[in-house]
């Protein structure tokens, strides 16, 4: 008997993975593609086999393509016949390694068994009609109303604005003259985006809420996905690049902070010191340390090389902090960070402790800025660090305040903000500030005067009548 068929027979009969009632394969519990098989593929395979990146010309994000197979010419799945299904051979471990998932440990035996039983039972598709929409570069999302926008970022040369959409990031021309590109990926929700220091790539953090997080890295020039990394079981947040562009960090809904090699996408950093969602990250000036903020009210410092938690940058005294922290950005020239969160007060902290910790201290704090209405969602420094900017929202109305760093005073508030604001970005020449939020519009303001310069939709809107 060929080795593959021996492995298949062992997998079917293995006592470690048969059902609790010890039923034979023919009597196995009915396996659902949508509920049981699809999540396994999402977490292990779809990073390389999705519309934006078809590894081996094999698409694994919908049932029909999953069965068809890729460039090998072999049928990936033959309903009722696992021995003839090439996918089963690809996930088969040999000497502890399998061809799929590529570069990762083999699927757990329980997951292999789920896929096997599903094929034995006929590989049926039970995807709900509401979940069968497919998006790719040729079939981007269409919008009948503006989406809520959660992220905006100027490119380092100031020519582009990356703006979050549904299942995509839109590359807008920074002068508001039109869309330069649409980066359509798997993630339903885009939480955060950041250009690499040299502007050639765009890192995107997001996911499908309650199901899967995803880190995407795109080539800006050709609008192609370099790679996708499925992460955890919920959205990921606060993507940032190391100063040299070699590492990418994210915060996660599973309370962890993770770092990845920017070239390969391999995870090289993990720390679970937070007690709640990690919402934003930033690297120290030399890239040796990483900072994260969280709903647990803490700003935490880690050493990148050792993945070691170093210190709570903020006070640990009960009651000293109020509410979670949503945003962090590093001072352009110093190891200091500007943070903002639920208490509405922007604050600057030094990263490295200069005095021994004492109960009740908050030694690392350098200054508070004047309180803003509601909750702060994003913060920024001008590139010369003379000004700090923060956006907040209260009762559906957004506020963007500009402060002078030297004296901590508020110098102006942007005009004409009628809806909640969730993300801001300052142009590299420090003359403009872009903001986005609840109304789906990109607003451009003059950073010196606070006057509105331009307003335009982030996405193309198709009237509802035109879709019928």
From TrEMBL:
It comes from the Bacteria. Residues 1-20 form the signal peptide. Pfam families: ANAPC4_WD40, PSCyt1, WD40. Residues 215-269 form the Anaphase-promoting complex subunit 4-like WD40 domain. Residues 45-102 form the Cytochrome C Planctomycete-type domain. SUPFAM superfamilies: Cytochrome c, WD40 repeat-like. WD repeats lie at residues 271-312, 414-455. Keywords: Signal, WD repeat. One of its GO terms (molecular function) is electron transfer activity. This is Translocation protein TolB. It comes from Bremerella alba.
